[in-house]
Amino acid sequence: MRFSVCVVVVLVVLAVLRPPQAAVAQKYAAIFNFGDSLVDAGNLVVDGIPDYLATARLPYGMTYFGYPTGRCSDGRLVVDFIAQEVGLPLLPPSKAKNATFHRGANFAITGATSLDTPYFQGRGLGHTVWNSGSLHTQIKWFQDMKASICKSPQECRDLFRRSLFIVGEFGGNDYNSPLFAFRPLEEVHTFIPDVVDSIGKGIEATHRRNCMDGLVQKLIEEGAVELVVPGVLPIGCFPVYLSIFRKQPEMYGRRSGCIKDLNTLSWVHNAALQRKIAELRVKHPGVRIMYADYYTPAIQFVLHAEKYGFLRQTPRACCGAPGVGEYNFNLTSKCGDPGSYACDDPSNHWSWDGIHLTEASYGHIAKGWLYGPFADPPILETRHH
């Protein structure tokens, strides 16, 4: 997800993620991660920090690192928890200088889309897309890196067969482009097939003469046999959307307070993505493709807050402008901007800055991806080779 410029906990105890003994031996040689601001570990800030970028200032990073790292959270992300759980170091951003990538790399970058910029420009949306590195661009970054981590194509294939690939999420920023241009929701739904095809097998876009390979398909061609493909979050529950898209009372969930038709958009995307994954599983029977669910846990954080140690309240950002609106979110005083403050204890909030999640939330999601029930199948289920 996230806003074009990413407008804009207490530490989740590692014991929460302690594996059963049977899973300890199921380690990966490396992890390669792709995506947007949900999993960006600092690619956006490697070459310098723009003045406008609030996410590169405290209180971002306050919980685990003690300083901002370029992660759009108070601490670790899902991919960080997964790396730690399988015995790997935190993945360095792929653009990092003087880093080694033999144990993996994180290609994700804030603002990333599934579709290339000309797709949006062709629909009159060039002004509402801020594409720092699309899915297609991240594939190229990955391919350019191979020479630095492998001595031969066969050595690369051997490494990739023993690695975990996390492919996304992608799609949040694609939908933000028409949403924040206030296009009709019916029009936004027409983006879904192109976004999902781009993630999966590839599309023939009108602005390109050649077919743009989908990320999953391309990674399988490179030798990947274990891939995690996440869906999108229920955007109707997030303060940024709740603040911008005011609706009639009947448009909100009675128990959740979320905007129902925005959550439907997310749900339809996820259903289409799961159908695409099913097609790819049939086409590549030797490859293990896992659907990873962001949607269900986020809904549960809202509806069953106490179960996860969160405060039961209206969807509300931990870090924002206190006293400004019921969602603690204000575009003119975002988290990291002057006038904004973080809550005393991010671990009891699921929403960090109104757009992204807290470390505590990501810890719960990572556990659900690793061991269930938030992945199909769970990552640390018996692996097949």
Automatic annotation (TrEMBL):
Q: Which residues form the signal peptide?
A: 1-25
Keywords (alphabetical) are: Glycoprotein, Hydrolase, Signal
Q: Which GO terms describe its molecular function?
A: hydrolase activity, acting on ester bonds
Q: Which InterPro entries match?
A: GDSL, SGNH_hydro_sf, SGNH_plant_lipase-like
- The keyword Translocase belongs to this UniProt entry's keyword annotation: no
Keyword Transport in the entry? The reply is no
Pfam families this protein is in? Lipase_GDSL
Annotated family: Belongs to the 'GDSL' lipolytic enzyme family.
What name has this protein been given in UniProt?
Esterase
Native organism: Oryza punctata (Red rice)
